[in-house]
Amino acid sequence: MGRDRWKLTNEEYEFIKSEVVHIFRLYNIRCIPISGFEIASKMGITLIPYSSLSERKLNSAMETSPDGYVVETNDGRECIYYNDIDWDYERQNYTILHEIGHIALDHTGANPDKEEDEANFFAKYAIAPPVLVHRSGARSAEEIYGIFDVSFEEAWYAFKYYRSWHEGYLTVQRLTEYEKELWDMYSA
Fold first, then answer.
1. Which residue of 4, 35, 103, 136 lies most exposed, with the fewest beta carbons within 10 A?
2. Average pLDDT in the 6-17 region?
3. Residues 120-134: pLDDT tens digits?
4. CATH code for the structural domain at 31-127
5. Helix-strand-coil percent breakdown of the chain, rounded to 5?
């Protein structure tokens, strides 16, 4: 789960954030903590845990990725394989959100490093959007950990990201359109 190897442009970050909110709206995602399992189910994505694989397929899956990966079947359905053997729920959830990012952003493998960073950002934003951190009242990584059911590492990243977002919010005193939409979705 490397971070920011490929520097994305502000426009790319904004696009990814709006795509996350679009998916939340489209699939009526309104619960915290955010569940990649729920989103995948609502999107019709088949989730396949590594523990369900034969030894041969498990070895192949581990060679492909120790975390997880997405495959499109011959009939056009998407399947996310994820490692439920070595990783706890928080890591599995992040992995599933990451793979949903690949699907939502229509990744083709043309630029793998950039696509990995886009999917990482998609998962980072989806798991604890700063506007929802703000709405929750969380004021520390520990509180984010408890509210958003993320790993300690993700809670730290989310809090760092939230503080940066909050500084910008205090400067301009307004939310973007997608942030307003997300705020309103979680108000009901």
1. 4
2. 92
3. 999 999 999 999 999
4. 1.10.10
5. 60, 5, 30
